[in-house]
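Hi L., both proteins are below.
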Amino acid sequence: MTLLNDPPGGLITGTGSRLVAEEPERFRVHRDAMTSPDILSDEQAKIFNHNWLYVGHESEVANPGDYVRRRVGGRPLFMVRGAKSKNINVFHNSCTHRGAVVCRQDQGNAKVFQCFYHAWTFDSEGKLSGVPDRDAYGGNLDWEALRLKQVARVESYRGFVFCCYDPDVVGLEEYLAGAKDYLDLIIDAAPADMEIVRGTNEYGMEANWKLLVENSIDGYHAVSTHDTYFKYLVALGTDLSVGVKGTAHDLGNGHAVLEYEAPWGRPVAKWEPLFGEDAKESIQGQRQTLVDRFGEERAHRMADLNRNMLIYPNLVVNDIMALTVRTFMPTAPNRMEITAWEMAPREEQADVRQRRLDSFLTFLGPGGFATPDDIEALESCQQGFASGGVEWNDISRGMTREPEANDEAQMRAFWRRWRDDMDRDDLRVMP
């Protein structure tokens, strides 16, 4: 099923096996995967319509009637905590009368959702509760059939809410595979329940979405691309001479993680000069608490190790100098929209929260040190693809050894799953 050499003059199609070429010491991806509208259409049908996709976090809808509006896999949805059931519902954001969007605000609390077009009204459980001039229908309205439509599957793991448009998809925990262990590290390390900090970063990029997949779990580019940030840390007194040490792991089902020890600090429990001398004692106390609760080995992983994790296909959890949850969705072969949130323990002390948010914005924010660098790099790649002359990207680094932090094994895990999904021809068409 793999292509080693495309026939001269051969037509590259949207099938994954013809776009991902794998040999014992060589792994390549054809650049059509980044530029073809037909391939993007296949991705929507075969990947985003049939895999679990991140919707949001339970903390965002903590109270009955709380809701958030999201685009998930290119579709408008909204997530709401039911007033009666207290369950988390994820609805297609479309009135069952004539199709207009029902939830029109990004977030809030509501007892009912009224379509502004004809004023049909639905409650937080999705039930149709009001129709103006209902007598005009002669008693023939099927109120149950006309309720808001739930997404086919909705499940939650440790507060992370996912949905899938395919009712036959495997259960979420089975799908998450080895990624569960890393979510557990994040949640267990917190002194209280985790929450999404109010507010989002939203921005766009003129590049293919899979380039951001690669970039998000790529340690190889850090020193060259983010040189300004490292100089900033040195100016503040951070010792970078110890370097970065770590490994990459294939977590199954296309998920992958880059796990490494780095010289910068972590709000969890690793002090650095950036946090200030006043914070030193408090952060050291947090670390001792982790040791007391989990033992030295697990506390070391929680406090000292950084993690850049991809949950296939488009969720990235960066547990680094801040804890960031990020999704991205293509709008064209060369365009994507990105949304990022900061996660933190509930009722965190104000000074600790401030350090966390400063780290989030300083490095990962749209105006920070890292994100503008990454945007420029990925848009540069997309521009380079238009030049032609070169057909394949090479993603072979580390194939002949145990994966290291700067290797590309984690990217190959994503591409193998992508290829398998794109090769499938047994998938139902999702409504």
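That was the first. Here is the second:
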Amino acid sequence: MLQSGFFDLEDRFGKLDQLGDPLKALNEVIDWSVFVPILEEGLTKEKRSKAGRPVSFSPLLMFKVLILQSLYNLADAQTEFQIRDRFTFLRFLGLTPESRIPDEKTIWLFRESVKARGLHDELFSTFTRF
């Protein structure tokens, strides 16, 4: 089995750039910082105790996961698979092959939380304006 070299990922991304990665172009056009206040304000909840699992993924990363689902019409399990499989998805999300990846349950819980708090329409209409 071959071991990855230091520049292998950089070379792969360079080739994807030459081929016209649409997700890289999307990342360059959208000011993602616009979504942070919406997500932080809408998803903040009062914590009654320190019990339970701490938040492991940023709300912005998870929102970008929902965008990938929407753009590519993916179910939660397929989204997890595609993030693990596609270098373009990893780069769009700001992850590396070694990064922890949100699993299908985490994706589902985040989407349901966004819907329950009435943020879905505001987030996606803001995204559409870009």
